[in-house]
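Technical annex B. To support the medicinal chemistry partners, we prepared a structural model of the target in complex with adenosine-5'-diphosphate, based solely on the information shown next.
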Amino acid sequence: MKTTVISFANNKGGSGKSTTCSNVGCALGASGKKVLLIDGDMQLNLSLSYFDEDRVFELASGEKNIFRAMQGRVKLEDCIVPTACENVDIIPSSTLMSGIEFELFPKMQREFLLRKALAPVIKAGRYDYILVDAPPTLGTWVINILAASDKVIIPVEASPWGLFGLANMFEFVEEIRGIAPGLEILGITVTKVSERKNYFKQTMQTLAESGTYVFPTYVRVDVNIEKAQDVSLPVTVFNPKSRSAQEFTQLAKEIDARCR
Ligand SMILES: Nc1ncnc2c1ncn2[C@@H]1O[C@H](COP(=O)(O)OP(=O)(O)O)[C@@H](O)[C@H]1O
Ligand SMILES: [Mg+2]
């Protein structure tokens, strides 16, 4: 099968990257797509969405994680761990990811190491989607993530500060297109929405004027999300009937449709 690599990136922290990546991944899996998630952040949030803390620390301090793969100590495909969610596998992150920039710096073609490491997995055709959760930085590691991606989704928080830095993000993507011309912005997804608040409307209006595609389904603030994260489950599994679970399922459909 053809594999589409999608990264979730925004240099602004707390914009909903990890939550969107984990839940969209789980929803795509539930719809029958084969999904590989890659946790690219030393905060381990994506890994924690699927495994409890003990297991995440065990994986993060072990030999089979994204850091070890980027070091070249293990093959990326040997770091794949199945999750309890149907059709969803994950490559965990590592606490050592704080040092990833130093690790990449002296290497040849340092911007393309993730792309190279992913090539055998893509060639094997095991996955419909590889979803990569990026950290809130704009360094060489995020360049790697974007240069390995076919598409990038930018989660934006519907808050007064949610749009700060978005112009930088667009410029950054444009620069990376210089070395990875295949990269496309698939769209912006709006997260943590309270429809009653004024800035929600302002956010939607400003985004509409940006000329970038905005997914019609946005995800509203929902306590179920934190409850689900607390027990290391995507909300789509924790409480499939919850509003956010339904929104993520809908968003996953829109993403899938837009990738065809
Ligand atoms: N729709 C939502 N409703 C309530 N809380 C949310 C929602 N989306 C994300 N959050 C919370 O907001 C915080 C930031 O989200 P996260 O996905 O970790 O952002 P990022 O990965 O961009 O830093 C987390 O504590 C998460 O639980
Ligand atoms: Mg995150």
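Notes passed to the chemistry partners:
The chain has one domain: 4-258.
The beta strands are 4-8, 35-39, 81-82, 88-91, 129-133, 151-157, 184-191.
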